[in-house]
Design a protein that fits this description.
Shape: globular
Structural class: alpha/beta
Strand content: 15-25%
Number of strands: 21
Oligomer: single chain
CATH topology of one domain: Rossmann fold
Amino acid sequence: MPASFESLQKILKLEAEYGYENRAVVGGLEKFLPIWANEARKAHLDEKMVAVVGEKLQDYPRLNPEGRAAAIQGLIEILRSAPASTSQLQPTHSEPSATPRQETPRPPRPAPSSGVVRPAAATSTAPTLGLNAPLTVISGIGPANAQILRGIGLNTLEDLLYYFPRRYDDYSQLKPINRLQYGDELSVMGTVYSITTRPVRGGQSQITEAVFTDGTGFLRVSWFNQPWLSSRLPEGTQVVLSGKVDMYLGRLVMNSPDWELVEQDHLHTNRIVPVYPLSGRLTQKNLRRMVFQVVSFWASRVPDFMPSSVRHGAGLIDLGQALSQIHFPDSQDQLKEARFRLAFDEIFLMQLGVLRQKQAWQAGTAQVFSAPREWLDNQIMRLPYALTGAQQRVLDEIQQDLASGRPMNRLLQGDVGSGKTVVAALAAAIIAREDAQAAIMAPTSILAEQHYRNLTLTLAEGENAPLRPEQIRLLVGDTSDADKAEIRAGLESGEVALIIGTHALIEDPITFKRLQLVVIDEQHRFGVAQRSALRSKGDNPHLLVMTATPIPRSLALTVYGDLDISVMDEMPAGRIPIKTHVLSPREVERAYQLLRTEINNGHQAFIIYPLVEKGDRDEGKAAVEEHERLQREIFPDLKLGLLHGRMKPEEKDEVMSRFHAGEFQILVSTSVVEVGVDVPNATVMLVEGANRFGLAQLHQFRGRVGRGPDQSYCLLIPESEDAVENQRLSAMAETNDGFVLAERDLEQRGPGEFLGTRQAGYSELKLANITDVHLIEKARNQAQALFSIDPDLSRQEHEPLLKTLEKFWGNGRGDIS
């Protein structure tokens, strides 16, 4: 029998099992018919046979049960007698098969393309087109609706199955009318006592008013511009209403409630009702009906990729049950279980991914570097200050990595001013001691130049310096062509032992003789491709990534699970805590007075604005206009510099150099000063429009002052008197601990504040909360246990998980770092 006929025969048999209720295919047999006919014609099947099938099925929905049974059984007999030779004309690619769909390989990507966890393929034997079928197979979805659905990313049945509600309205509790109270949100079951429609607003609108009764009392209900309800809900109709109980002229009323007839399946009333994100002319009721059709047929048929050992160990419900309950929960408890299962899936697959990354990294070999204790002690003694306990601990961890024979893959996180650069400098010295090379990449030319000055002072000046000044070079975008050529030659020959630069390090055709250490500063500002390009210039080099943005523990467990993490949680001795104050916009003159007082005492100040220039639709303050106003009206006797991201690199460098040299008393800037700028004489940081910045970013701004021996201040002024924003900003005044602020920022603004290109997918998680440490630890423990017994997921029972994992991670293991 031809394969297309076999597929149709299975559907017909399933329809018979369902009692001829037209449920064998989502959308009904009449929806399936044109798709099947098209496939049959592609397979060059007999046109007469295709016509016979069409004739039998096109009127199927309008037949009575006896007529449907006769049509189905008649077709089954016709198909049995189909000539065997017809199968020779059936192309192998044309059958709408229910066998697992093979994923087309895609290039490796560093993060999940979406937070939605879906099985790699539908392996159900259900005779349908599968979850890849277009939404037009659903009854009620034509080309116009399909176009609207495409606008919110819904193209297939699978898309709709995994389109989760954004919230729920709980109408599961029924109350008699005589017990209703103002403010209740619930369902009421009753009978239409009376209903009328009348014009309002001079005939421009209409209002339909009805009175409902349940025997205990009467409830007045109204709908605007729905006059058809008068004929749809005549007197005596039994209806379930769901909505909020309001009050009008002392009487309880419901305005525009959802309603359903009592005999209908209740999707919109008398239950916990899902509320979905909408777009265009799509309505909640229509979308719920579409989802219900897919969920009722497919949820129980989706294969569960999760191994039974993990399901039992973590206390998870089945995937099919979770998909059903996440859309149409029977109770709050079942909704909670469904959310936990699907959120667990997301984090679990994340954990397996980073564990594979870590395994791949550790499987490589690397050059061993082991510095003698006496030599390293001498280098530490050369420093103008003693190392903190945290710096010494991190240095010991890095030494162990460099001597292990495996590539170092370490994240060094430390608060602003904790001394990360000194540790990186000592690591570079250990590498250079054995004639190998190190590269340090910074996100801005300002920061790269500052690193160059500091590292030259640390490593190439004074007695017993490990490097000579000419062995340390700076490469940024505006480095002259002659210097670039000289630097390239020095790196190729090995004469340059330490190169510091921006992305120019990877954009220029640079070749290293022996690159063995790569240091990435403010790593979240670089994309995967940039980090990978620099690392590829060496042979499995050691990698140290640094950030001054404290990483919350939950993120460290997930996003950075492939990295060894060092924490610099101790500040150098003598640092005076910065005093932080949140001021209202009306108190800006107080801020200006503090600036003038500090400047009169010989200090300098920053003033930060969220915008470069003011746009037509933006009410926020901008640096360019405010710089002119401040210079003209507020500080006419002082010199004010201006710095923003649209300036050329050489212009920015010149402004910062002049500010560092004391030529400007005040620097007006945008967020370009967030990272790395070190001006010890600056004691005031004033941030206007502070509500536009995250806490982590404000903490970075604050770190630009307090670098010297004098008391420093950070003043935050939001754009309005809004109490909530001021309460959020008050966290800055409560603590100088960057880790505390990072946790709060993660809760308030999500993970995007901390993540770069590699981790973009993590901010798209549909159900998992990246701040839920309990969930993360449970998923991590289960992933580690599974990984310990089958790291390659090669066992037969783990095959569905492997396919889903590869789909989740884009068929690639991602990038390491």
